[in-house]
Amino acid sequence: MNPFENKPWLDAYAPGVPHEISLPTGSLVDMIEDAVRRFRSKPALEFFGKSMTYGELGAEIGRAAEGLRRLGVKKGDRVALVLPNCPEHVVAFYAALRLGAVVVEHNPLYTARELRHQFEDHGARVVIAWDKVTDTVAGFPADLPLDAIVSVDITKSMPLSTRLALRLPVKKARTSRSALSSGTVTRGATTWSQLVSQGTLRKRHPRPDVHDLALLQYTSGTTGTPKGAQLSHFNLRSNAEQGRAWVPGLREGAEVFYGVLPLFHAYGMTLCLTFAMSMGARLVLFPKFDVDLVLSAFAKHPATFLPAVPPIYDALEREAERRKIDLSGIRYSISGAMSLPVSIVERWEESTGGLLVEGYGMTETSPVAVGNPIGPTRRPGTVGVPFPSTEIRVVDPENPSVDREPGEAGELLLRGPQVFSGYWNRPTDTAAVLDSDNWLRTGDIVEVSDDGFITVVDRVKELIVTGGFNVSPSEVEATLISHPDVREAAVVGLPLPSGGEQVAAAVVLKPGAVFDEIGLRDFCRHGLTAYKVPKRITVVDDLPRSLIGKVMRREVREAMLKKGA
User: Fold this and answer.
1) CA torsion through residues 384, 369, 90, 277, sign
2) Which of 50, 187, 301, 378 could form a disulfide with 159 if both were Cys (CB 3.0 to 4.6 A apart)?
3) Of all residues in the chain, what percent carry a pLDDT higher than 90?
4) In which order are the strands placed within the sheet that holds 536-539?
């Protein structure tokens, strides 16, 4: 019997938080159109000081949807987005959904190899990409054909004064301009302005159903092999409703959310693309996290709600303190994706006067499933309690039919409306994590108190969490082993004081090879995104192995920690 069946954590909920949410009956398209109707004159998006109202956002979505329709996008087709945070990202997301298509999010900093692996898997034929990466996408081989590439120059969404400043003939302007745009359009690509210049989509065009597939979000899951998590309109809208329910003090049409988390990541996607939009918030977008940009924006429209990760809170608090900038407008802050040190909570809450609470989830849960209450019952050092309409079990990881009692360590299982339906075209992988009763195996070892507060104590999976992103050790090891001087490699995550982990590697060199740590890192950068490149590499004579010959990464990690590697 499940000892947590009666949900002992409900007493810890903040006042006004319901035990269950009203399950959505409409799609994300219905959600955004409702927001456009209710908040038409309110600011929806802001980018480098230039704003767009909800009415303007709705009109742009209609034009982009018509442009995609003319490119041949139909219900069920995958539309790939390879974009940083920008207004076009938000518009493209909802425009594709309006046609009944499935959005596939990608990190625009991925290498050609990383992107090609995902495109081979999902088969999207239409891509909306940052102009800095359209050449990479256009360079895919002939066996990976694309019907259309839409090129986005994000500087076009900036105020005219900012765009003019970027054209100044000085080094700083040239550097900034180069970081934001390639300045060219890939041959054969459609520009964003061309996409949205062909009228608006007819209202009678078929609409998606609430249970239709909305998003493929790639994750390394619990095994390390990148897979497309299938998230429906129902999953994503349910999670947005759970988030809204969790913070009853939020004011519709009056909050200012800061989009410092990447929208292509599940965390940023839900907190900003769906949650913020559902309640008529002003979403201030940043193409990447930059302390100067964020604090400059704060002077104009201070954030009231800031979803982020521990290193961002740490950096903002320290720099604001140094510059004597008042952060007191931030009432609510939600941290996720990595462990949140109590010291950061204390400093942040002292600086802002607001609350900073930790949550927990995974891509397969859209992504949030657990959170600390927004109020005095919160418990720093834990990830909190299950969200409304969410159930948990704690089981023996070797035999998930055996439940663990409160206080006993075991694998966390989750069930709720935000839990995904499986991995794209991977029934075996799906069956390994999702049972017939829709219980999801998280791969995380937790301890749960009598009153339902969850503490993550270990991971069954060996993924590395750095900067809020999952890194597959196997992928990094394969890159290292492809170097002519490396015979074997083991990649692990080493804990950082600010939370999260640092990618580190132990390598065995081939006979006669000379160790060149800088050269190895440079080699990795040709095939891996920057955050996956090992920050530290050490040489060992051999790697510890199990009786069947499998490298024991846990022992590698312990050895590196002892040596201070």
Assistant:
1) negative
2) 50
3) 79
4) 486-495, 501-509, 536-539
Could you report how far apart the first and last alpha carbons of the chain are, in Å? 45
**Chain centre distance of CA 499:** 17
Question: Does the pLDDT of residue 211 top 60, yes or no?
Answer: yes
- For CA atoms 348, 494, 369, 291, the dihedral sign is positive
DSSP helix/strand/coil, 305: strand
* E strand or H helix that includes residue 359: strand 355-361
Q: d(Cα 270, Cα 235) in Å, to the nearest integer?
A: 10
| β-bridge partners, 284 | 46, 258
Q: In whole angstroms, give the CA distance from residue 302 to residue 330.
A: 7
Choosing among 3.40.50.1980, 3.30.470.10, 3.30.300.30, 3.40.50.300, the CATH entry for 464-563 is: 3.30.300.30
Q: What is the pLDDT of residues 367-418, one digit of tens each?
A: 999 999 998 999 988 999 999 999 999 999 889 999 999 999 999 999 999 9
Give residue 58's pLDDT.
98
How far, in Å, are 4, 79, 125, 500 from residue 68 at the CA level?
47, 9, 11, 39
Nearest Cα neighbor of 327 from 298, 292, 293, 356 is 298
C-beta of residue 272 within 8 angstroms of C-beta of residue 257: yes
Which two three-digit tokens encode residue 370? 């657990």
- Residue 83's nearest CA partner among 259, 208, 210, 201 is 259
The secondary structure of residue 186, as a DSSP letter, is: -
The distance from CA 227 to its chain's CA centroid, rounded to whole angstroms, is: 14
Return the CATH number of 28-208, one of 3.90.190.20, 3.40.50.12780, 3.30.70.100, 3.10.580.10.
Answer: 3.40.50.12780
* Ranges of each domain in the chain: 28-208, 464-563
CA gap 525, 522 in Å, rounded = 5
Q: What is the dihedral of CA 288, 358, 251, 88, to 10 degrees?
A: 20
d(CA 396, CA 463): 20
Task: Say which DSSP state 434 is in.
Answer: B
Per DSSP, the three-state class of 95 is: helix
DSSP 230-259: EEEHHHHHHHHHHHHHH-TT--TTT-EEEE
